[in-house]
UniProtKB/TrEMBL annotation:
Domain of life of the source: Bacteria
PROSITE patterns referenced in this protein's UniProt entry, alphabetically: ABC_TRANSPORTER_1 (PS00211), ABC_TRANSPORTER_2 (PS50893)
The protein's name in its UniProt record: ATP-binding cassette domain-containing protein
Alphabetical UniProt keywords: ATP-binding, Nucleotide-binding
InterPro entries: ABC_transporter-like_ATP-bd, ABC_transporter-like_CS, ABC_transpr_LolD-like, P-loop_NTPase
Alphabetized Pfam families for the sequence: ABC_tran
SUPFAM superfamilies in the record: P-loop containing nucleoside triphosphate hydrolases
KW Translocase (keyword) present: no
Gene Ontology molecular function: ATP binding
Family per similarity comment: Belongs to the ABC transporter superfamily.
Coiled coil residues, start to end: none
Tagged with keyword Membrane: no
Domain named ABC transporter: residues: 4-214
């Protein structure tokens, strides 16, 4: 997948809003593979909605979203599975870890689907994010910031053309935010992937190609 295009997309919830000042909704915008985008939004402007559309969890909008030249409203479940496994990696704002699995198991259970990272690599990322001593701790017993770092690693252990990160540093201090950015940069550069980061304030530190207001 080389591009994601939004053509005059209007979420149903915003259909009656006449003073929508957005560079994404009711607009024409294309996200290209290999580029980095920051989607800046105030609370309630539709960040989670935007992410849900890209994973096929919701389709309550008018207008068109195209993956390359295909309208994603035509996708069957099988194609969404392919998108989620191989084309768009997602770091959810609410993390969605399995509370009863350990931090390491949460990452490896996903990694087993496509074997995209080695155990050595994964453990090295844990170490760089200050989580070496948390490998065997259940996710439900981690702090929010620790869960956010584990969720990042889980999002990365798959092939992808785009990484979509929904408020990825909302629970992190500056040191971990910078380390998270380094790891993301290494992997997206290696894959030539695109990056779409949403933010309501503190931004993942990056040299973004473009910033859009949601
Ligand atoms: N599943 C849903 N179905 C229909 N409308 C929804 C759904 N989830 C959220 N909305 C509505 O869409 C609008 C945007 O909500 P959304 O959760 O996308 O915003 P957000 O920018 O992620 O907000 P926040 O930063 O506060 O989490 C809100 O008016 C909300 O009521």
């Amino acid at each position: 997948m080389h591009s994601i295009s939004f053509n005059q997309v209007t979420p149903r919830v915003f259909a009656e809003v006449t003073d929508l000042h957005s560079e994404v909704w009711k607009s024409q915008v294309t996200f290209e593979r290999g580029k980095k985008y920051l989607v800046a939004a105030d609370s309630g402007c539709g960040k989670s909605t935007f992410c849900s559309y890209l994973q096929g969890y919701r389709n309550d909008y008018t207008g068109q979203i195209l993956f390359d030249k295909t309208d994603i409203k035509s996708y069957a479940i099988r194609q969404w599975v392919e998108v989620r496994q191989r084309h768009i990696a997602m770091l959810f704002q609410e993390m969605r870890l399995f509370a009863e699995l350990t931090a390491y198991e949460n990452v490896m259970i996903k990694n087993r689907l496509t074997s995209s990272a080695s155990a050595v690599e994964v453990k090295d990322w844990f170490s760089r994010l200050g989580l070496s001593d948390k490998l065997d701790v259940k996710a439900g017993q981690l702090s929010q910031g620790q869960q956010q770092r584990v969720a990042l690693l889980r999002s990365l252990v798959q092939p992808f053309d785009f990484l979509v990160a929904d408020e990825p540093i909302s629970h992190l201090d500056d040191t971990n935010s910078y380390e998270m950015a380094h790891i993301i940069r290494e992997i997206i550069d290696k894959n030539g992937a695109g990056l779409i980061v949403t933010s309501i304030g503190r931004d993942l530190p990056f040299d973004y190609d473009k910033t859009l207001k949601l």
